[in-house]
């Protein structure tokens, strides 16, 4: 309502102290507080009376309709909630229930087939990695034997020369 800062309130208090005097100042502040409280109460009463009159005239329905039109996300969420309620009242013996059960069974079969295929692919990749590791180990062994043979020949040649 009024935008008074701390410094402004301090100046008003000092002026009131000088004009009214220290003896009557608490009485003045009490009366000002009562007046402000009554003014706020009257403002609240007026606002509530206006809101009640608007509700009685049907403005609340129009306001709700406008808010719903202005907020499509809430409308979609409400529609989703209605569908969720319908799903909660689901009858498994109906055609829809039978179709849903068949779809769930098909989804489980697809999931199982996918898991089996992934396991086969992992096993195949592991076998290929093992074959590659064996080939690399064999090549390393052959290279080691070649180096050892060369060292043996050089050692024999050194012994022969000595």
Summarize the structure.
The chain is mainly alpha-helical. The protein has a domain at 1-53.
Any key phrases for this structure?
Sec-independent protein translocase protein TatB, mainly alpha, single chain, transmembrane helix, membrane, 162 residues
Task: Describe the model.
- It holds the Pfam family TatA_B_E.
- GO terms for molecular function: protein transmembrane transporter activity.
- It is a single-pass membrane protein.
- Keywords: Cell membrane, Membrane, Protein transport, Translocation, Transmembrane, Transmembrane helix, Transport.
- It is found in: Cell membrane; Membrane.
- The protein contains five helices and no strands.
- The protein is mainly alpha-helical.
- It has a domain of 53 residues.
